[in-house]
């Protein structure tokens, strides 16, 4: 699903008006109808409905809604800023609503007014929509607290809840209206499907308000997409029935350690389930022997000591040059040898390099130098950090990273020239230009080892695919979907990382069966 930034929505409105011949009042009326349909489906006729209307086009949508439902509900519109409607299109509906006897009150933050709003059967947020950014205007934090404290009201946001940045999903000073449903108009905005905003928007009801979406997709360049089932399936590489093992890539895996042995098991199995033609494993001798007994399909090489030596680095670099992707770091432990290997591979030409877990942590030990090294790498580098690992490398606290996930991910990928997979709820995949936001996954994945499975599966997809970015996007989707399906059976408590590789394969089987 394509996602539209607020700046693009403005251009779409202008294009719809000037090129498609759809006047702005018509778009606002269509928006009002979409919200009215949602409201009627959840709120009984005659109920007490309160609309909080701003002075921009989002407020205009609120007045259009009010004019449509005035005869059906006990309705009050609060003029939040005391400015009525600043645009001509919104004034059309404000004046119609007022002329028909509709009730409009200027908002004052008093106990009486807040109590009136709190006791409503339905509260509609039509304050800012995509127009909100930056700091919260004075007094509105009390209004938000009032809305959020209402246990009686069904809460609907028009386009974007108050306090949510439509573009990056950040929350103003930790204040935002928490609603039951957000009616997303024309296009869903990236912030609605990214955390922390995703916790506030409730169920997203999408309405294209009658716009020719396919035509708009051809006219505008959409950089943001939500990875859903259809998109993920379209990214799967097609397998030539006349192909051989040499047709589907060669993956080199350098992961696991004496301390974190399980990471190697999980990554290797996920890679094998990912369809790559060859898998080569390099690791400690005892771990290689352990894996050989479980996965005889893999080619094995061993370290001569517990840590990676200079001789091992030379051997691994040579192996990497003959493989179509290399994965390093899952469960490796941060050592001088690992740091030496990671920096050597980043600096050398070659196929895509996927760095996970301790490979990323090794870079964070000197983040400024590492970011410079990454930005000059002659090969494509993919980083798969969870928020703590990313915060170490990015140089910001975890809370700061999590509060502006899209913005920080874009900035880092753009500065370093990498493909970043910022894991977590609503995993973000970006190369600094295009952004994919994942729609699957839950707390079922919040267990040690889940990331090792993702790393192995993702590396297999990169090794066998022509596009690193889409390989990463499809990998996080199927990884999350597998956890979701397993959680339906086992609960989010009962899913283990070991369950995931086989279930990922089943999810892909379901997708390919639809072709």
- Percent of residues in helices comes to 40-55%
Unreliable segments of 5+ consecutive residues:
none
N→C terminal distance: 19 Å
The largest β sheet comes out as: 11 strands, mixed
CATH first level of the largest domain: which class? Alpha Beta
Q: Give average pLDDT, whole number.
A: 95
CATH level-3 fold name of the largest domain: UDP-N-acetylmuramoyl-L-alanine:D-glutamate ligase
* Fraction of residues in β-strands: 15-25%
The structural domain count equals 2
Strand order of the largest sheet: 1-9-18-17-16-15-14-13-10-11-12
The beta-strand count equals 18
**Radius of gyration of CA atoms, rounded to a whole number:** 26 Å
CATH architecture of the largest domain: 3-Layer(aba) Sandwich
The CATH superfamily of the largest domain is: Ribokinase
Helix- and strand-based class? alpha/beta
Shape: elongated
Tally the helices. Answer: 20
